Amino acid sequence: MGGKVADFTEDATPVPLTLRTDVGGTPAKAPAYTQSLAAGGFGIGPEDRAAAAEGLTAPEAAEAARNGSVMRVVAGAGFGTGTLLLLVLGGWILLARRGRGAATAG
After folding, report:
1. How far is residue 38's CA from residue 16's CA, in Å, rounded to a whole number?
2. Which residue among 10, 18, 81, 94 is the one 20 to 30 A from 100 at the CA level?
3. Is the dihedral of CA 41, 46, 52, 58 positive or negative?
4. Is the CB of residue 45 less than 8 Å from the CB of residue 36?
5. Which sign, positive or negative, has the C-alpha torsion 8, 10, 14, 20?
6. Global confidence as pTM
């Protein structure tokens, strides 16, 4: 029965239904394809397997790759800025100590 049968029946009650089928014969040989099914959009390619291993779909994996490259740039800039600040503060402290030592000696 179609799914729309309940739309035009009043006071319909669900009827438990079990459908049993038997498949006979032997399976036929698969058709020959000129290219891989994954290239045609009908299969699982290496990218799909890698994404599935990480628990992602292919679009989610592509988005994660784009976000990952942006985050690498942000992380590199953050570490570079932090290193520069530490060097500047270290030099400032060294200059302050030298200046203090010369002032107390004179």
Report:
1. 40
2. 81
3. negative
4. yes
5. negative
6. 0.38
The amino acid that residue 82 corresponds to is G
Transcribe 1-26 into DSSP letters. --TTHHHH-SS-------------S-
Which two three-digit tokens encode residue 78?
A: 């953050």
Per-residue CA distances from 95 to 26, 47, 102 (Å): 88, 55, 11
Pair of tokens at residue 55: 């628990």
Other beta carbons within 10 angstroms of residue 61's beta carbon come to: 18
How far is residue 74's CA from residue 13's CA, in Å, rounded to a whole number?
60
Please name which of 68, 62, 66 lies closest in space to residue 50, comparing C-alpha atoms.
62
Question: pLDDT tens digits, residue range 46-70?
Answer: 777 878 888 888 788 888 877 777 8
Tokens representing 77 are 């800039």
